[in-house]
Amino acid sequence: MILMGVEIEMKLWDNQSLKAKRKVIKSMIDKIHHQYKISAAEVGRNDSLDYAHIGLGVVRNQKKEAEKVLNRVIRMIEEKYPVEILSISFLEGY
Questions:
Q1: What per-residue confidence (pLDDT) applies to 35?
Q2: What is the spatial distance between Cα 18 and Cα 20, in angstroms, rounded to a whole number?
Q3: Were 9 and a residue from 24, 54, 87, 90 both cysteine, which residue would form a disulfide, CB within 3.0 to 4.6 Å?
Q4: Inter-CA distances, 51 with 8, 13, 43, 45, Å
Q5: SS3 annotation, the chain
Q6: Which domains does the chain have, with CATH numbers?
Q7: Which residues of 29-56 are buried (b: 16+ CB within 10 A; e: fewer)?
Q8: What is the pLDDT along the chain (94 residues), one digit of tens a residue?
Q9: Which residues contact 31 (CB under 8 A, 6 or more apart)?
């Protein structure tokens, strides 16, 4: 069993308020939950207007499969949301 996580720091574009930011992040997290069936949460920079820090977690039988799912999620975030990903940190456990 492989436990893998990723922390993503991102800059959000075109936000006018924390309410607007939270709407984008909530939409992103809900889509990740429903489409990819993995855990996701905002884990930092909650009060920042322009920046967000989210964490993702997945459990799979093989490392390659866990990496594949997380990389798909990262690609989806880049393609569908008005964000610039600043850093990505992969975490792994057994």
A1: 94
A2: 5
A3: 87
A4: 11, 9, 12, 6
A5: CEEEEEEEEEEECCCCCHHHHHHHHHHHHHHHHHHHCCEEEEEECCCCCCEEEEEEEEEECCHHHHHHHHHHHHHHHHHHCCEEEEEEEEEEEC
A6: 2-93 (3.30.70.1120)
A7: bebbeeebebebebeebeeeeebbbbbb
A8: 889 999 999 999 888 888 989 999 999 999 999 999 999 999 988 888 899 999 999 999 999 999 999 999 999 999 999 999 999 999 887 6
A9: 76, 80
Length of the chain: 94
